[in-house]
């Protein structure tokens, strides 16, 4: 997330949060992804 933020990507989540199944998730704002809401997911 820090790398994306450093490149000017607008994030909805500044820090990861826990989603389904205990995975860490964060979202990229659609304005930074040509109108597409992107979910980043890291599973253990």
From TrEMBL:
InterPro entries: Glyas_Bleomycin-R_OHBP_Dase, VOC_core. PROSITE patterns: VOC (PS51819). Residues 1-43 form the VOC domain. It comes from the Bacteria. This is Methylmalonyl-CoA epimerase. It comes from Caldanaerobacter subterraneus.
